Amino acid sequence: MSKRDYYEVLGVAKGADEREIKKAYKRLAMKYHPDRNQGDADAEEKFKEVKEAYEILTDAEKRARYDQFGHAGVDPNMGGGHGGFGGGADFGDIFGDVFGDIFGGGRGGRRGPARGADLRYNMELTLEEAVRGVSKEIKIPTHVHCEQCNGSGAKSSADVKTCPTCHGSGQVQMRQGFFAVQQPCPHCHGRGKIIAIPCGKCHGEGRYQRTKTLSVKIPAGVDTGDRIRLSGEGEAGETGAPNGDLYVQVHVREHEIFERDGNNLYCEVPISFTAAALGGEIEVPTLDGRVKLKVTPETQTGKMYRMRGKGVKSVRSGQVGDLMCKVVVETPVNLTEEQKELLRQLDNSFSGAAAKTHKPKSEGFFEGVKRFFDDLTN
Predict the structure, then answer these.
(1) Which of 328, 288, 285, 321 is CA-nearest to residue 304?
(2) Is residue 185 part of a domain?
(3) Are residues 38 and 66 in the same domain?
(4) Among 182, 220, 364, 366, which one has the highest count of C-beta atoms within 10 angstroms of its own C-beta?
(5) Which domain holds residue 138?
(6) DSSP 148-204
(7) 199 is an annotated ligand-binding site residue
């Protein structure tokens, strides 16, 4: 049986943020939870479907694969090979996720120290850096694991004790109406351990704040909006828990000559009146240096010339785009009297019967204007 679209399962739009997804998930999970629908196989299947959709759409990496490849991107049974859902849903975990915010805790509760927070760094690049790739050093203010206590938060290993309140489970049980739920232990805050004598450097946190320097390799072809994930380079987790990730968000500055659209580059090339009329070769800029462009005779302003392979190499497909040169015929300025007279003579040579030959657009335009006004007066 084919799977339903995850956004359809949760009843949210494709562009929904995490808050909207979580809200929809809680509502549906509460509706279909097995504890409230005992013996209802259909509700149990819907509950599993809701849980699966939620876990994919709240994981940034899995959601990106799903948006690009559909179910095949996240389900190994459909050929994606990226991980997915093989067995049944863990009702204990989902119960804690759904009802934890409502009752201050859940059956799953908080199991041990929390993973470190993800961080974001906004990196501005020149067009040349984005097209060719570059390595950059960045400084990140963050929490790092304390090397003195190895992230434990204790002065020594003997100073880490089992919590006497929850006996190491990190959870305590409480009843609210017909629900029997578990909460993180208020004594050890869900860790299951307490620190008798804290580490002198991190004061029991297992981490401390400092600025670390990282070398980030930006691949060739990135563009504004692209994001590079550095696994484990986010904030250190609590008392030895895993680090979060660092996401480098790319922004490419405007260029004084080129505009980028996907893998293609665009630029305007001014040419002289003479070159436009007679044709010839002109030099145009590319990111690799100057190249010759052959201009055909009688070229008009706005004509586009394509220079194949002079664009940007795609960071994903490896295909190389083109450079599109838009010709702009430049009107001469600061003319001398002699130059003005020569232009008058040239213009006079275009008049009369020769006008249709040398200025077809102008003649066609003015003939159209004349017909328009003749029609109005008739």
Answers:
(1) 328
(2) no
(3) yes
(4) 182
(5) 119-156+197-252
(6) TTTTS-BSSGGGEEE-TTTTTSSEEEEEETTEEEEEE-TTTTTSSEEESSB-TTTTT
(7) yes
Distance in angstroms (rounded) separating the CA atoms of residues 4 and 22: 18
CB 52 within 8 A of CB 8: no
DSSP E strand stretches across 198-319: 207-218, 227-230, 246-252, 259-261, 264-272, 280-286, 289-295, 304-307
Identity of the amino acid at 28: L
325 labelled ligand-binding: no
Amino acid at 42: D
Residues 238 and 353 in one domain: no
Place of tokens 């849980």: 51
How many angstroms separate the CA atoms of 244 and 61, rounded?
Answer: 13
Structure tokens at 224: 């504004």
Burial per residue of 1-22, b for 16 or more beta-carbon CB atoms within 10 angstroms, e otherwise: eeeeebbebbebeeebeeeebb
28 lies in a domain? yes
Domain boundary pick from 330, 350, 369: 330
What pTM was computed for the model?
A: 0.57
Per-residue pLDDT of the chain (378 residues; tens, 9 = 90+): 567 889 999 999 888 888 889 888 888 988 888 777 877 888 888 888 988 999 899 888 888 888 877 777 776 554 444 443 333 333 434 343 444 443 334 444 445 567 888 999 999 999 999 999 999 999 988 888 888 888 888 888 888 888 888 888 888 877 666 666 777 888 887 778 888 888 888 888 888 888 999 999 999 999 998 999 999 998 888 777 888 999 999 999 999 999 999 999 999 999 998 999 999 999 999 998 999 999 999 999 999 999 999 999 988 888 999 999 999 999 888 999 999 999 899 888 877 665 566 665 665 555 665 665 566 665
Q: How many domains does the chain have?
A: 4
Looking at the fold, whether 131 and 236 belong to one and the same domain comes out as: yes
Judge whether 182 lies within some domain. no
> CA angle 241-246-248, nearest 5°?
175
- Which residue has tokens 């010339």? 305
Q: Which of 215, 232, 252 is the last residue of a domain?
A: 252
Helix (H) or strand (E) holding 23: helix 18-32
Q: For residue 149, say whether it is annotated as part of any ligand binding site.
A: yes
